Amino acid sequence: MEPRENELKRMKEQIQEMEEELGMSSRDIKSLELELEQSRLQISAKDKEIRRERQSVEDLRTELRNIKTGLDRSSRYIQEPKELKEACERIVYGALDDSSHWSRRLVGREGHGVRVRETEGAHGAKCGVSQEETGQRHGDTSQGQHQSHAGECVTAKRDQ
């Protein structure tokens, strides 16, 4: 009977080893499932972020297209400074609408205005938005003053 007992003992040891391997495998599987779930959550968050960024880019493209259209339309006033200034103001105030992406990016903090200057382009003059008016580029300018530089269309101030 001894060989039979040895056989049973060996089989019990094999069963025990297999159960230990099964336990380790199930722990590994649970660990991998947790990692997979975390990865899925990260992918979902990144996907939402990418969708938001794509929408933001599309919004910017639309606003830029609107500005370019306004500039093209205002180029007919190249010989009429007053009408050109008014056309540029309409473009700028339209672009700096409170809901506008440009308003949030360019104006930023309350109390800072945006200087709008005309730049030379292929079809003559067109209006463009430059840096925040901090006085760094053209010297210090008080809030209500309007600097007279060649090519300047308007100085836009945010209502407070």
UniProtKB/TrEMBL annotation:
> What segment(s) does the record annotate as region Disordered?
109-160
Domain of life, source organism: Eukaryota
The keyword Coiled coil is assigned to this record: yes
UniProt lists compositionally biased (Basic and acidic residues) regions at 109-123
Q: Which UniProt keywords apply?
A: Cell projection, Cilium, Coiled coil, Flagellum
Coiled-coil annotated residue ranges, if any: 1-63
Q: Does the keyword DNA damage apply?
A: no
What is the name of the protein in this document? Cilia- and flagella-associated protein 57
Lineage runs: Eukaryota, Metazoa, Porifera, Demospongiae, Heteroscleromorpha
